[in-house]
Amino acid sequence: MSDPTVADTRRLNSKPQDLTDAYGPPSNFLEIDVYDPQTIGVGRNRFTTYEVRMQTNLPIFKLKDSVVRRRYSDFEWLKNELERDSKIVVPPLPGKALKRQLPFRGDEGIFEDSFIEERRVGLEQFINRLAGHPLAQNERCLHMFLQDESIDRNYIPGKVRQ
Amino acid sequence: MSFFSFGQSAQIDIVLNDAETRKKAEHKTEDGKVDQYFLFYDGDTVSGKVNITLKNPAKRLEHQGIRIEFIGKIELYYDRGNNYEFVSLVKDLAQPGELTQSRTFDFEFTNVEKPYEAYTGQNVKLRYFLRVTVSRRLNDISKEMDIVVHTLSMYPELNSSIKMEVGIEDCLHIEFEYNKSKYHLKDVIVGKIYFLLVRIKIRHMEINIIKREMTGTGTNVYHENDTIAKYEIMDGAPVRGESIPIRLFLAGYEITPTMRGINKKYSVRYYLNLVLIDEEERRYFKQQEITLWRRGDVVRKSMSHQAAIASQRFESSSSDEKALAHAQAKEQ
User: Fold this and answer.
1) Cβ <8 Å between A9 and B247
2) Which of A66, B92, B149, B156 could staple A147 via S-S, CB 3.0–4.6 A?
3) Do the domains spanning B10-149 and B162-331 agree at the CATH topology level?
4) Quick one: CATH architecture of B162-331?
């Protein structure tokens, strides 16, 4: 520091970046798509399922590409499990739409195309926000929801260890 | 003040001897207004004249004595009843008697100790002022004049950099470095953030300067946090191996020197807060304390002897005197 009146603003020395790091694929790739709504069953016992496809390169997830089918109550189950077991603030789910389930409606109620699309978008936002949370990624229930064929509601809640 | 229009009253003016040459400094008042006040340092003599002008030139002003005080005191906003005067000097200007005409009195407080910097905060205020009082039977006439005091320090002998590796296991590892731990008020924070592991989707990164004022002791402790500065240092998603530079000029911000345990009543400390924000608005942060100090201004030839002593009083050692002499020589 030769001249005390002019500040030394030179950058600190840093190691040059490895070119494979600079141009390689980022290690934070995580994309979840919620699509292909299908209404199953007849009459009063109908329900809608959605395909949930996850693609990732995060090492904490066992499968780098997984596809499962889930319904709205499965998303609700996941939200409740995380609110109980983890310390995170869980993002909101799209509405439960109880009014739409009442009889004597003019339209298809919860099987209306526009409503299903609205719900699909909300579920996609919900699961993407949740799966990217470092604390949620430690929970067994999230991994089961995204990558197991079906959800075992009698599972033992716990944390995932790498 | 006096509701009775009969009787005599007087106007008091305080004029410093070096009012022409002494520098002024800006200082915030309690209600947020910024004003200019005369600037003093520890050890400076405070001298001047008190002009007492009779409002009614025909009548006499009877009084029980006229005195001038130099006071340094700490006011806690939640405890205004108690007075914490750490400097209190008095000079009698006149014995009880009467003034038949307007008069001027000289005063001098020689080499006054002013150990702390004047500070106006959110819960506490430290101020220095001159107060002239004309004592009377029913009501006194008084006038106060505030001054501002700055405390100076020398370049610290030891000023290590801050370098640390922090993160969330398997998600985010960074190494941050700031070139110093002690910065003067017109300094530049030079640093860098090096990314070792990035498994979250970062959208941007910023550095904040946080001021924390802690007042009181025991059951009455108040903490006030204030974000003085927010400065974005990175926009976009970094990957492993990337190094982001930091260059933050402090001169533009409203900061004071770090004050620790002033008269055991309050502290003002500063922290750098490094904040990373991901695509879902989640914030990851690391706070680090820094020490701020006030560097003596470039020394002019006409600088008084007392101010030279004052700026050498802190961290005085033979090498520091040489540094001050070197700075003086350079500017002359």
Assistant:
1) yes
2) A66
3) yes
4) Sandwich (2.60)
